[in-house]
Amino acid sequence: MLCLSHLGARLRRSAVLSALAPGQPRLPWSQPVRCKRYEAYDARLDQDALAEARLWYNSFDASQLPKGSTTYARSSGPGGQHVNKTETKAITVYPVKELLAVLPKYLHPAVLSSKYYTAGNDSLTFSAQTHRSKSANLDENKRKLIDEVMGIYRETTPAETSPEKKKRHQEIEKRFHEARVQGKKINSAKKQSRRGPPE
User: Fold this and answer.
1) What is the DSSP string of 124-145?
2) Which portions of the chain have biased composition (kind: Basic residues) (predicted)?
3) Are 65 and 99 in contact (CB under 8 A)?
């Protein structure tokens, strides 16, 4: 359950994000808002899902990503007759179903909110036309896919909390709980003193 102050902040953040340009990074709404300052950032996140995502990242191999399907078209802009007569612009479509099959589940929501996501064919679509050859533009699309996947991981997956930091948070939580109990006892004693001695 969200704190009221954080709920208001989330509503304001939603309004701001809706006005952002499509290229601005956005965090998935599934991430929880912390209401207690003594909690570690990832305290309420699915630890198994985080472990899977971190393991995937540490052993990432670009060859595991789907190849997608590529079509070519005539490029626009400067380039002279080569641009006007040859189809060097590469448009590569990576079906989301194939992409999610090789990505950890923790990243799935963010993939669907990617700026490259095309709802019509349920895919991530990249295009490149800066190079004069088809193969170079195709390679650029592959690099864009890798950059997008890595960017999604970095934006959504927090660094692992060290054992020392976890211990420190536990100690802070313990002190917080003890202070809260002590405060309740003091308030209870005040209420009792207002009532006067029992008859």
Assistant:
1) EEEEE-SSSSHHHHHHHHHHHH
2) 187-199
3) yes
